[in-house]
Amino acid sequence: MGAGHLRPMLELAKQFVRHGVSVIIPVMTGGPATDLVSKYSNSNPSISFHILPQITPTAPHPAPFVNMINTLKDYNDGLRTFLIMQSDISPISAIVLDIFCIHALDVASELGIPAYFFFTCSASTLSVFFQLLTYLPKHPMGDIGTTIMQFSGVPPLLASHLPSGLFDPTTEQYKLSLYMINRWAEGKGILVNSFESLEPRAVRALKDGFCLPNSTTPSIYCIGPVIIYEEQKEERHLCLSWLDTQPKKSVVFLCFGSKGSFPIEQLKEIANGLGNKGPYSLFPCCLGCTRIRISTQTEIPYSYSLFPSYPNTPLENSGQRFLWVLRSPPTVNPAKVFQQTAEPDLDILLPEGFLDRTKDRGMIVQVWVPQVEVLKHEAVGGFVSHCGWNSTLEALNFGVPMICWPLYAEQKMNKVFLVEEMKVGVELKGYEDGFVRADEIEAKVRWIIESDGAMDLKNRMMEVKESAIKAMEMEEGGSSFGAFIEFLECLN
């Protein structure tokens, strides 16, 4: 599975250990697990890992999602053998499954082990998914068009906000998606990476049974925010040193997750809005596989107070300081969707002279930065994000206002929840059509960093930050801390 699911599971394991619970994590051979297991096992000796034996995979399916679920199912035999062996050593209190590991539920049931799911998306997303089980059979996506859909606990949604795999009921991906959601309801409970005060309506709809009217809702435990902290390295990432030199709340951070990438035309459009004129400066640097081109900043020549009446120039003239994590354009080969992409060639992907024009105020990092460390840095004043839930929780936890650019999966729904329900983000127009123009990026970046009109959003974000901290507090009776204790008591 992708790092976006594996890393939260590893952070959850740390919470178990802090409460005196022994944890063993079975992981697949190869993939992103290999490096992460090595890193976490060295720095977290209290967490044990078991590498499941190599499998002979079934014939690949053309849909990457279906192929992934089938691959996970192929590991059931190895998982069963391991659990039986482990049970002979000491009793297993429960198994906590990633939401994609639906077939492992059969192994847990066969062995009489209580099974819970760890839902790494929002409670709002979970509430919608459960309600789709009764909604979609009556309202096929092909018949809905632009109709507004109403669900308990969340704002109105358009059909286009749903994951694309739910659009065509004749596909294997559609059928498997609904089957997966049904399997979640069969677990004894669901640990949700969120906190109740962030999504009170959705949590109430789930707990009151409105989302699964025809069956019993499993116990819901909001235990978040489970934040993914990178393991400490001896050498500090260069981007953090660069941020140290920037004024407080002056830098906009652009990052789109481990799988978020854009065609070259969109990359150039982003660059056109972030660049500025000036002499050329290039500082190549190698940190692992990461090359960095950096700069520092000039004064912004514009002043304004109302959004969105800004100078209608390319974003390149916005004059904002920026830190941009840039990935290579997406592959056109479906079989390689979940593989690591090649390191991007900035000279090809960026407009001619872009590094020249941004030499005094921008930094581009290829592939990766320590995102949590970046978001909690005082120089960062805004976050252009794909609205992945891990990234969203990190922004909320550190009070960084969001500029929402959803790309895939449930991210368009997250955008609605963030902008309309939680009031912690602003939308980038054009994402629904697959192309966001430079002047739109310019307007929103300027607004979030400079405009007095963004103060309500920033104040709201600080309120959410305080709520996130309180939810995890032990002494103050935080809701998420209490929910985790309640879950542990069920295991006993």
Automatic annotation (TrEMBL):
Keywords of this entry: Glycosyltransferase, Transferase
GO molecular function, one term: UDP-glucosyltransferase activity
Keyword Transferase applies: yes
CDD domains documented for this protein: GT1_Gtf-like
Enzyme class: transferase
Transferase in keyword set: yes
EC number: 2.4.1.-
Superkingdom of the organism of origin: Eukaryota
Family: Belongs to the UDP-glycosyltransferase family.
Record's protein name: Glycosyltransferase
